[in-house]
Amino acid sequence: MPNRPDERLRIGEIHYANCTPIYHMLKKNSDCADYDFIAGEPAKLNALLAGGNIDISSSSSIEYARHSSEYLIIPDISIGSRGEVRSILFFSKVPFEQLADETVAVSSASATSVVLLKVLAKFHFGFDIKLAPSRPVLGEMLEGVSAALIIGDDALAELGKRHEGLFVYDLGTIWQEFTGLPFVYALWMVRADSARRTPELVGRFKRDVKAAKEAALGSFNSIAEAASDTMWMDRAELVSYWENMSYDLTDAHIAGLKRFIGHAAQVGEVNLGHSGEVILNFL
Predict the structure, then answer these.
(1) What integer best gives the mean pLDDT of the chain?
(2) What is the 3-state secondary structure (H, E, C) of 168-219?
(3) Of 3, 11, 122, 268, which has the fewest Cβ atoms less than 10 A away?
(4) Residue 33 half-sphere exposure, CB side, CA atoms within 13 Å?
């Protein structure tokens, strides 16, 4: 029998293709009677998690950095890449090196990727840029500005198109060139107060989502056959995209995460306090 409503877990669910394998296998293989799934884009789920309106989510790594004392990280799982990511694309009318002090349009759905762009501009290319949140429609975003950042399925939808006159940059690739480390776009995060309130249920979810990851890694083809993403993306391309992602959270991922958070603090996006570093608290 399902638990009472106050004992159920509210799970944030990002409907982006990069998250599809984990949620698919979680719902397929686990008893989700005590889980309520609440859909949203990354920025929305960040706000719901911060406000206590959901208990757990695959949520932006910058959200953890900004409120680390409120969250616990589920270990061994993330949404990341070791280089090219394909779904975080920066389109520019001029080479990146020529964007110093320019205003660029950024998707209002994004959180971590916007800060990553700011970090790469500052520390890899050596200059500041100004960010203007915008609706994620590439043609509209490029009206009146030199460059635009789009993420997730909106970025994937642009991959197969011709973009004459534009320079196209994959931010995962640039991060790899800059640091030699993986990049962690999202962590699986639990509100610390939710973990205290329902420790057994949170512990079960931790086991379920890690099992879902392991099952997904060997099942991309079968997941693609059932995925709604294939309504707009070729099945083989979808599988290739998943195979290119990194769903682990190794020591190298953690090093990349800490490097990113440190740089984010340097550009004023995170307050690390007197310690000067973020503490990673694991469930």
Answers:
(1) 93
(2) EEEHHHHHHHHHCCCEEEEEEEEEHHHHHHCHHHHHHHHHHHHHHHHHHHCC
(3) 268
(4) 5
